[in-house]
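Milestone M4 deliverable, item 7.
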Amino acid sequence: MKRAASVLASVAVAGAILGNSVTAVLAATFTYPWFSAGLVNNYDLTAAQMQANYDRVVHYSLFPWVSELRLDTLPMSDSGRQHFADAKDLFQVFVQAGLICLVIALVLGIWLWRRHRSSGFLIAGGIITLASPLLIAIPLMINFDRSFVVFHELFFDNDLWIFDPRTDPIINYLPESLFMRNAFAILVLMIVLSVAVIIWGRWAGRRAARARLSAE
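Output delivered:
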């Protein structure tokens, strides 16, 4: 029982870090002015209007109760609207999986600590997660354009992600730099959280070991 719980808790820790890193970085819409270098403002929108459009795209993608994407200052085609709906489905996997994994990790983690004074699942989960961003970062740094295309080909079964700026000008306000910097921010946050979890696990393990020695 302990071994199975430890394995499941380790996987849950990794899933929680991944899912919540994606959610946290995307939810931090205040980064838009710094992350969106190179955008084409062909509709002469103000900074506030551009930020409002980005906020709406992100809120639509992350919040399940936001059922419709409406941009007051930009037109949108049916195909563009459908791609955002497809992207929302993908983001919801990260959002919901991150929350579910967090609950599982907390429940099993508390049980493992109280019953067995075990914190190895934290270290294992952190190591599992730490390997992922390091591997993902390599192709992103070598050729981000190609990685971006491959990502869309893998996760979307149509070509609606290829926007026409004439019918969906929102794409001009979502430049490649925005996607690239968000991607690296997610990887950095994953690394930080992974290291923090590993340190926490090692600290808890040493604490448990000292408690056992004192009891003897």
